[in-house]
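Entry 14: structure prediction run for Fucose isomerase. Input pasted below.
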Amino acid sequence: MTKKESAPISLGVIIGNRDFFPDRLVAESRVEIIDILKSQNVNPILLETEETKLGGVETFQDARKCADLFKKHRDEISGILVILPNFGDERGVAESLKLADLNVPVMIQAYPDDLNKLDVARRRDSWCGKISVCNNLYQFGIKYTLTTKHVVHPTDPSFTQDLQNFIGVCRVVRGLQKVRIGAVGARPGGFNTVRYSEKILQRNGISVVTVDLSEILGNANKLTKDDISVKNRLDAIKAYTPTGRTPDEKLVQIAKLDVVLNDFVEQNSLDATAIQCWTSIQQNYGCNVCTSMSMMSENMLPSACEVDVTGTLSMYAMQLASGSPSALVDWNNNYADDENKCVLFHCGNWAKSFLPDIEISTAPILGTSVGEENTYGALSGRTPASPLTFGRISTDDSKGIIKAYIGEGQLTDDALNTFGNRAVAQIPNLQGLMQYVCRNGFEHHVVMNASKTAGILKEAFENYMGWDVYEH
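Run finished. Output tokens:
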């Protein structure tokens, strides 16, 4: 049920060396790591063998050459992988990173020794060298990621998993440092819970572009059912989901709004949106915006309702970690008397990946106050069993920080007789989690993703972004 991204990523590679260890170890590791990275859809950027001794980094002059290479590829490099086939030169590694000044995640790998090859001609001492490299990076103030095993051969399955996780960390950090979020309309008056600080977000590289909802609705009202752009969006909507009993004129309304929202995203180079929904769109335009939000989220442009900017930021971060769409949900109901299960719910804006039985419908709860005929566009569908990563990013304005909680569980196939977008979640110590959410002032919205990526998010948020993180 997930939609994976497959775009290659570029990593800078530093191969550490120390002159009194066997040079052939550097030559062997270079060939090995290039093959492994390419097999994982990674483009390696590293020194050629004629630029330094075997393409390794040892002296300060080597470090300068390596840094110059990385700076030339600054826009491509999402992270740096440090390889230690032997003890390595800790200064060479640290100085390369300091001179390059890329501010990207760094992972340190060190080769294991063979018990039968501990003579002078064949020993590595990488176990010790890794500690020295990390000590120097710590002194230089450079953040870094460790492999699960202190020393590990690149062909070891645990390294493959570490590498995939590191690539996820790189995607999250790179994406969050330049993300642009569109805030469409004012926060609904009844939703103090989604208040946030633009200034704190901006200090962390997260930009918010605002637009008044009247401008969006005004532009939508200027369109007609005969406009080519409206016809094209109407075709896209019908291809995306069954329309159920939705009247034709409501589908046209939804399509017109979709045209304007997509234009706003394109004109402002946005990565995500948060849209005022409850209840202005229904009262002043006559439909729900859920279908458009679902289509954007499915197309990796996450969209959250109720102008929940940090909610859509959470969606974007999880999408970057997993390569699959995210959904904004309410922590909504207990599930009978099971203390580790709850109901996740929203009117109907989840990405299609979560809704195999997707259909355009109405929002009955909202309809009680604005008229159900004004809520067409909400989606109906039940999410089946799948892996679950959940979490939430929030600005804590009184402390001047960004904080987050993350965790993992399962979505289940337990019976659930209700409407809207809905799922049943099973989470270990759910009661303890709810205690944490309530005591620390988090929002009633949480984000779900069909993956197991909490570790990636924690490493990215806490180690590289410097945020306060609770991992449940």
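Notes: Residues 331 and 434 are 9 Å apart (CA to CA). Will compare against the previous run tomorrow.
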